[in-house]
Amino acid sequence: MALATLDDLGDYLRQLDPDVSDIALRQGELIVQARRGGITRVLTFLRDDANCQFAQLADLCGADYPEREERFEIVYNLLSLKHNQRIRVKVATDEETPVPSVADIFPCATWFEREAWDMFGIFFAGNPDLRRLLTDYGFEGHPLRKDFPLTGYTEVRYDETQKRVVYEPVKLTQDFRVFDFMSPWEGMTTVHLPGDEKAAGRDGEG
């Protein structure tokens, strides 16, 4: 039978230690912080255990926190149709350390992990088809990293002489403009516009 509340489920999942480092209920959502090496065991338990039965991986995505030692967070959102419950599992990693793929547990994760690899550069060890998914084959970098330049590194255009699409380094057509953010009304000290005398009259009356 299903555990009555998410608090009960959280207490039940504490038996997963040492694969789980933290379990918390935040804003009505149960969040499980799993250790990187134990993510496959955690997700297998959540899928197969009778009190869990989180049989659907609704989403897998990445997040970038450059100030952290392990800057990337992989987020797994699971759904149990049997018990009508949701749970969120998180794993942290850095730019160099791979995360075990969960494609054998949830086949749909193959595509989700490809997207996370493409956008963030998070490597999933064991993914059978870890290729770029949303960017082009020759794309450089990972565009959802916080340190990725807004302009990118290359630009694409159609070359009429070559009759094909070409890739070139980004070229800014003008220097960055400088804004002083001064209100135009504050800067106009010598010019008087029609109606200014009315404002001055009101000030004098006050």
**Helical run tally:** 5
Low-confidence stretches: none
Quote the CATH topology. Beta Polymerase, domain 2
Query: Within the largest sheet, what's the order of strands?
Result: 1-2-5-4-3
Radius of gyration over alpha carbons?
27 Å
Helix content: 10-25%
Query: What order do the helices and strands follow?
Result: HEEHEEEEHEEEHH
Count structural domains: 1
> How would you sum up the global shape?
flat
Structural class comes to alpha/beta
What's the pLDDT, averaged over the residues?
87
The profile of the biggest β sheet is:
5 strands, mixed
The level 1 CATH classification is Alpha Beta
> What would CATH call the homologous superfamily?
NADH:ubiquinone oxidoreductase Nqo5 subunit
Q: Give the amount of beta strand, in percent.
A: 25-35%
Secondary structure layout plus pairing:
Layout: H1 6-13, E1 20-26, E2 29-34, H2 39-48, E3 56-64, E4 72-80, E5 85-93, E6 99-100, H3 109-120, E7 124-125, E8 154-159, E9 164-169, H4 184-187, H5 196-205
Parallel strand pairs: 2-5, 6-7
Antiparallel strand pairs: 1-2, 3-4, 4-5, 8-9
